[in-house]
């Protein structure tokens, strides 16, 4: 998913240590976990008044407590996250990344922590014209996507006759939609949830029928089995304690059930 041109910067957070018993992070455990993210993905991870916030940073805080480790965040453009992981510049990607076969060739994913789907966003004024199920697939429809996302992949496969326009982030896609440069903007459920929650784009609305079924997870280097196992153990604990549910409930105002 979940996408820019930002200089990497490091924000360090240290957390109280309260749990024990999980596997060490690394051989010769450094007590530091370097997390790569792209902070342009409300409500999963974004900047608010100069501070990182959202589901991912909040979960990372609890992860730091559980693993008794210092959490260090590094921000990257979306396209640079997997290369940074492969080079060893970061230990894990926590940035709303959906599991795909292509990505799984390069990284190892933890168990999913959130189920989402791609959704179409339109102007409220166009609801009569564009809200029908097949409207988006008509020839000549102008559809905005974010490069490198599963939304872009979906449109390439299922709306081949559309005029596809790339936008670097959801905000630019929203602006293009509001200015009538496109008919639809495709992004995933968290973007649509955030649209429903906020009032920055009052003229826009999401069509809450998922176009895809996607699982969101964290990614680690394919060779780092020890860290992968540790993160999966931690996720199980956070789920069992209800911590993960509480975090997600705080940021997700619209719950979409995706049928299997």
What does this structure look like?
There is one protein chain. By secondary structure, this protein is an alpha/beta fold. The chain has two domains: about 10-115 and about 215-250, Periplasmic binding protein-like II (D-Maltodextrin-Binding Protein, domain 2, 3-Layer(aba) Sandwich), CATH 3.40.190.10; about 120-205, Periplasmic binding protein-like II (D-Maltodextrin-Binding Protein, domain 2, 3-Layer(aba) Sandwich), CATH 3.40.190.10. The chain contains nine helices and 15 strands. The strands form three sheets. Strands 1, 2, 6, 7, 8, 9 and 15 form a seven-stranded mixed sheet that branches. Strands 12-11-13-10-14 form a five-stranded mixed sheet, with helices on both faces. The chain has a three-stranded antiparallel sheet with strand order 3-4-5. Helix 5 links the parallel strand 11 (about 140-145) and strand 12. The protein is globular. The model is unreliable at about 5-20 and about 255-260 (pLDDT under 50).
């Amino acid at each position: 998913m979940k996408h820019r041109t930002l200089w990497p910067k490091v924000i360090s957070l240290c957390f109280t240590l309260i749990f024990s018993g999980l596997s060490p992070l690394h051989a010769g455990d450094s007590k530091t976990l370097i997390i790569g993210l792209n902070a342009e993905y409300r409500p999963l991870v974004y900047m608010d008044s100069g501070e990182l916030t959202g589901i991912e940073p909040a979960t990372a805080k609890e992860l730091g407590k559980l693993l008794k480790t210092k959490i260090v965040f590094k921000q990257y453009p979306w396209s640079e996250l997997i290369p940074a992981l492969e080079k060893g510049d970061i230990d894990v990607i926590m940035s709303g990344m959906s599991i795909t076969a292509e990505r799984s060739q390069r990284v190892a994913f933890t168990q999913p922590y959130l189920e989402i789907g791609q959704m179409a966003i339109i102007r409220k004024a166009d609801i009569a014209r564009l809200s029908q199920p097949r409207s988006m697939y008509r020839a000549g429809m102008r559809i905005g996507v974010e490069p490198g996302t599963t939304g872009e992949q979906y449109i390439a496969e299922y709306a081949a006759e559309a005029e596809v326009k790339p936008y670097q982030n959801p905000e630019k896609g929203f602006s293009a939609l509001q200015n009538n440069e496109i008919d639809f903007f495709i992004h995933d459920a968290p973007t649509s949830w955030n649209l429903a929650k906020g009032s920055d784009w009052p003229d826009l609305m999401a069509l809450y029928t998922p176009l895809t079924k996607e699982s969101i997870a964290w990614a680690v280097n394919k060779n780092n089995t020890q860290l992968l196992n540790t993160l999966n153990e931690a996720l199980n604990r956070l789920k069992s304690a209800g911590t993960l549910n509480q975090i997600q409930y705080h940021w997700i105002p619209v719950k979409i059930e995706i049928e299997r």
